Structures are given as C-alpha cells and as structure tokens.
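Hi support team,

I'm filing this because I wasn't sure whether my run with glycinamide ribonucleotide finished correctly. The job status page said complete, but I'd like someone to confirm that the output block is well-formed before I use it downstream. Pasting the exact inputs I used:
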Amino acid sequence: MAKLRLAVMISGSGTNLQALIDACADPDYPAEIQVVISNRPDAGGLLRASKAGIKAVVIDHKKFEDRESFEDALHVCLKDHQTQLVCLAGFMRILNAEFVNRWRDRMINIHPSLLPSYKGLNTHARAIEDGVRFSGCTIHYVRPEMDNGPILMQAVIPIAPDETPESLATKTLTYEHQMYPAAVKLIADGNVRISAGKVVFKDTELGETGLISPLI
Ligand code: GAR
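And here is everything the job wrote out:
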C-alpha cells in the first residue's frame, strides 16, 4: 500500500522530527516524510533532515509582509509535495484560521501539556507553579483556536516533588517521541476518524491503547 505523505513543520531542535525520521526508517512503517519546513533558518531540525536525506525548506516568516503571504507560501510548499498529513512538531507560529481550515483534519500538533489544560507557552513552569500532580502531552488535530481540536493521544506524566521546568520538559519529550510515530501510524493505517468533534478509533482495541499513555 502507498505510504502516507507527511510534511513536518518545525521551528526548533526537532527531536520530535527525529522520532518520526527514525520511525519512517522502518520499511514497514506506513508513512514517509516528503518535506521538512522550518520557519527559522537556524532550526536544529534542518540538520536532522539533511542528515537523513530528507528535503528541508526554510520559509522564514520574517521575509514576508504579513501572515497571509507567509501562510500562502507554506500552503504552496505543502501542495507541491502532495502532502496528505501535516505534522506540527515544535512549530511555534500561530496559524490563521484560513490556513488551518485548508488543512482541516489533515494537520496534527503536539503540545507539552494535558490539553485542554495549559495551552500556550511555558506549560511546565505553569503546571509546577500551580502544584498539579500530573502533567502530560497531547497530540490533537488542529483547529483555528490555539492548542485546540480533537484529541488523538495523550500521555500522563506525574510531577515529582522536586520537579523543575527543565526536568519535566526532558521527561515529557521522551513520551512525545513515543507518541508522535504511534499517532501518525494510527492515521496512516486508516484507524482514525473524527465524529462530532472527537477522535474515534475504528478498531476499539486501538481505542483503548490510544486513550492514555500509549506504548508506555
Ligand atoms: C515539544 O515539547 C513540543 O511539544 C513543543 O515544543 C517542543 C519541540 O521540541 N511544542 C509546543 O510548545 C507547541 N505549542 P522539538 O523541536 O525537540 O521537537
């Protein structure tokens, strides 16, 4: 069967991109990365892409007059690569509703909190400050409201008494790296559908594993 064509959009070090690159190296994995797009020319993930022989493109938001023209360039690049699924992996620009709607149900994001708690930035510091006992990470379909949309997968991560934002970030990333390839595989295998704003797994057994802390 043809593999699902991915575009991965990044702004930073790209450790989630690396997890996807590593998963795609398995010939049996049902997806492949066609292009990596960074809005920052200095993103570490660009080197990861080139090391893996994957096409990497910089679309620098600073070089565009406005958000619309930046997003038009993103859209053209995604179309040029016949993208079937956009994976936001540490992509740190807010996207307009028009762009998001063009990729509705074909774009997913990873966020370092248990959504809908702690949308936005500095999630780890805010969770520790509030004294909550659990943090986590979430993969969700993207909707125009920031860090919102049907939830595909979540992992729950206990917060230790001596936790720091840095230690929690490190811990969270190890879960993210397991979740992202697993979530893409669920989609590529055709096991995901969205019904009434929620993700439903076609296979109920997958539903149980996808519900919380998959593979962990
Ligand atoms: C990850 O922790 C990801 O969840 C977060 O940025 C980090 C990127 O790391 N994303 C967001 O905060 C988006 N709102 P990476 O570049 O090493 O994959």
